[in-house]
Design a protein that fits this description.
Oligomer: heterodimer
Structural class of chain A: alpha/beta
Number of domains of chain B: 2
Shape of chain A: elongated
Number of domains of chain A: 2
Largest sheet of chain B: 4 strands, mixed
Number of helices of chain B: 14
Radius of gyration of chain A: 27 Å
Largest interface: A-B, 101 and 107 residues
Strand content of chain A: 5-15%
Order of helices and strands of chain A: HHEHEHEHEHEHHHHHHH
Distance between the termini of chain B: 30 Å
Structural class of chain B: alpha/beta
Strand order of the largest sheet of chain B: 2-1-3-4
Largest sheet of chain A: 4 strands, mixed
Helix content of chain B: 55-70%
Strand order of the largest sheet of chain A: 2-1-3-4
Radius of gyration of chain B: 27 Å
Number of helices of chain A: 13
Chain lengths: ~375, ~350
């Protein structure tokens, strides 16, 4: 134990000489968090200009529905923009609004007479997802419109049941993924830094010639990197508390446990890679861009449980895929999910496999490197 | 001219000392794009339905196939499930019928608002399709006027947003780390004592960075084209935009390297600058469509203007004025070129 403490203090001194690596694990996730917050954290509505040329009342009725109909976000589907036709098209061409609805002069007349009433919808479709939203949101508006008009009832009515009264928005889901990314990147960056110091000051030669096992040396690094990862993850968690008002409360131990196990998996991969490539930059680029990639692939942007089919098969070989949803439960609802013991079991397996293989391969590498 | 040529040759020879860094800086954005293409939003959703063996149920299931883009993908892929399996699912629709009316009942075991919204909209679209069939001439028709001939996959836009980032990553990262390495290896003194004028040395370095930046950009152009079948209308225009972004990236890289002088801070700063420029540079959609603070921040990011110039070259549509974007990008270019020259002079000359 004493040997471990001495090595840990030595590593800490090495870390203190260049603490900049801590920023590497914090800044990229923080930038992503701010950007996603600005993009997805606001009103996710379609900005649409409604040009009502209708000579009767139905156009105005339709406009009222468009402004009021709420999505499960408890927000309207549309943000109506007041503009004349020329301004609307200018805004549309500048991408400042998403679409334009034009109600023809005889709309009310045709609705009343039942003679093929129609609406013109101008939409951007260089992005198929937005084009899809234009089409399916329009269905919500027409559905309500028909009901208000007192049309003959639909052949099938709509009913929905939810498990609870509270829905979770998209940005909080993403934010928890970013928090996990921060813990992961933080630990990876720190292990890269510690190894870079040893490589650049040629201490690897001493390590390779060490008569005792190198496990203590690697364990000290791992503990320090793990601590730094958890520290950075907690900073993001505090940011989330002030931004979104979510906090795991007394279950914070579970957040640290999950993030710690995921970080342990990645620390050992980074540790081996840093001695393999020897260049800090190579490891650094791979870490940041690889980390962002893992964030997206392993459910950083969506709920894994709810969209299993959308998770690529190779994402299941990374612990993040298993960790992200239970983390969301703890952070966003403050509750431990039922599958937490199973998740922790899986993460322990990942972490121990990575620790075992990582330590073995790194020790071999260090002995050869010297 | 001969001196410039020799300096360029020297620069390219130096590249051989760090092939892995070059390869990573060039290929990482393409790798990011290719893997992201697998998971990016797709309009087709799997929807679980219990086939109740009543006429309304089969009519509903066939109507699900009709919910689609008239010039693109279907929006629903119905998955028929039995009642036993349905208990384990997080979304399922059952068709229930009593004496008064029939109902499509969608049950959720999930609380993700965005997902619920998507399922609800698709269910409504299906039911509206059936209702429209029954209403006949009373139903309201929506005449669509899309901006392009077919719905283009979001992946194409995402790739377009990545293009300036690809060029920037290669130029900033390679540029900054090599300057920092010169400080660490003390070869910076050779630069101080060089007979060649500063602009010639910077010019040679920039040529090398531009070549690698353009390679990174065009590798990504090929990846976008091959995976989405969306190709630029003019490769020449794209190349010109890459050159401008490359000059900005190369100059920024040189400035970062000169200021940081050490590999670690220089590398982290380069990554932070690249990622910031990417995420705030209309990477996930035009900044104007998000509005607010995002649009405000994006105005200070060169990638925003690069995306505005790339946009018409990919989609044949304007994203604001291409001329003003070109002017702003050129101003960025001139500013960073001047800054890199200024900082170079300051930092190299004071080196002892």
């Amino acid at each position: 134990m004493r040997r471990f403490w001495i090595l840990l203090c030595t590593e800490l001194k090495a870390w203190r000489s260049e603490p900049i690596s801590a920023v590497g694990g914090l800044l990229p996730p923080l930038i992503l968090l701010v950007a996603f917050g600005l993009i997805f954290g606001g009103r996710l509505t379609m900005k649409t200009a409604f040009i009502d040329n209708d000579e009767g009342p139905k156009g105005a009725q339709l406009k009222g529905i468009m402004a009021e109909e709420l999505s499960p976000f408890d927000q309207p589907y549309y943000d109506l923009v007041d503009a004349d036709e020329a301004t609307a098209f200018r805004l549309f061409n500048e991408n400042r609004i998403d679409g334009i609805w034009i109600i023809p002069t005889d709309f009310s007349k045709k609705v009343e007479e039942g003679k093929h009433p129609s609406i013109d919808m101008h939409l951007s479709n260089y992005n198929d997802d937005k084009a899809k939203n234009h089409r399916i949101y329009a269905s919500e508006i027409l559905w309500k419109f028909y009901k208000e008009l007192g049309m003959p009832p639909p052949p099938l009515d709509r009913m929905e049941s939810y498990p609870g009264t509270k829905m979770i928005g998209w940005f909080p889901l993403i934010a928890v993924g970013v928090m996990l990314l921060s813990a992961m990147l933080g630990s990876m960056f720190n292990i890269l830094l510690l190894n870079h110091r040893q490589l650049s000051s040629k201490i690897t030669l001493e390590l390779s010639l060490a008569p005792k096992s190198l496990i203590y040396a690697l364990a000290a690094k791992t503990v320090l990197a793990l601590f730094m990862g958890l520290f950075l993850g907690t900073i993001i968690l505090i940011v989330l508390y002030f931004w979104l008002g979510c906090w795991p409360g007394k279950n914070i131990w579970a957040v640290w446990l999950i993030c710690g196990l995921v970080s342990l998996f990645w620390i050992n991969i980074s540790m081996y890679a840093s001695f393999l490539f020897k260049k800090y930059i190579t490891g650094g680029i791979t870490t940041v861009l690889g980390g962002i990639l893992i964030f997206f692939l392993c459910g950083g942007f969506k709920s894994v449980r709810d969209q299993v089919a959308d998770i690529p098969f190779f994402a299941w070989i990374f612990p993040n895929t298993y960790a992200v949803d239970p983390l969301r439960d703890i952070i966003l609802t403050g509750k431990l999910s039922n599958d937490l013991p199973l998740t922790i079991g899986i993460l322990v397996l990942f972490a121990s496999a990575s620790l075992g293989i990582g330590f073995f391969a790194t020790i071999r590498r260090l002995r050869i490197l010297g | 001219m001969k001196r410039l040529f020799l300096l360029i040759v020297c620069e390219f020879r130096m590249s051989r000392t760090s092939i892995p860094i070059h390869l990573l800086a060039i290929l990482q954005p393409t790798l990011l794009f290719l893997l992201m293409a697998i998971i990016l939003v797709h309009p087709t959703f799997d929807m679980n339905v219990i086939d109740s063996n009543i006429p309304e149920s089969s009519r509903f299931i066939s109507a699900m196939d009709s919910v689609r883009s008239p010039i693109g993908e279907p929006y629903i892929k119905p998955i028929l499930v039995d009642e036993k399996t349905a208990t384990t699912l997080r979304q399922v629709i059952t068709i229930e019928k009593d004496q008064k009316k029939a109902i499509a009942h969608q049950r959720f075991a999930l609380i993700d608002a965005n997902l619920v919204k998507n399922y609800r909209n698709r269910l409504t679209a299906t039911l509206l399709h059936l209702w429209n069939e029954d209403l006949g001439s009373k139903s309201v028709t929506i005449r669509e006027h899309p901006t392009v001939g077919r719905d283009l996959p979001y992946t194409a836009y995402f790739g377009l947003g990545l293009l300036p980032m690809a060029v920037m990553l290669a130029t900033i990262l390679i540029g900054s780390t090599f300057v920092a390495q010169e400080f660490e290896d003390k070869t910076v003194l050779e630069l101080k004592m060089a007979f060649a004028p500063i602009f010639l040395i910077l010019c040679a370095r920039l040529v090398r960075l531009l070549v690698f930046g353009c390679i990174a950009g065009f590798v990504l152009v090929a990846a976008i084209g091959l995976s989405t079948n969306v190709w630029p209308l003019s490769f020449l225009n794209i190349g010109a935009i890459f050159l401008i972004v490359g000059i900005i990236g190369g100059s920024l890289g040189t400035i970062i390297g000169l200021m940081a002088k050490r590999l670690l801070p220089c590398f982290i700063s380069s990554l932070v600058v690249t990622i910031t420029c990417w995420v705030f540079g209309s990477s996930f959609g035009p900044a104007e469509s998000f509005g607010g603070n995002y649009e405000l921040i994006s105005k200070f990011v060169p990638n925003t203007y690069a995306v505005k110039m790339l946009f018409p070259n990919y989609f044949g549509l304007n994203l604001g004025s291409a001329v003003s974007s070109a002017v702003i990008l050129a101003l960025f270019c001139a500013l960073f070129l001047w800054l890199s020259h200024f900082v170079y002079k300051q930092q190299i000359m004071k080196e002892r």
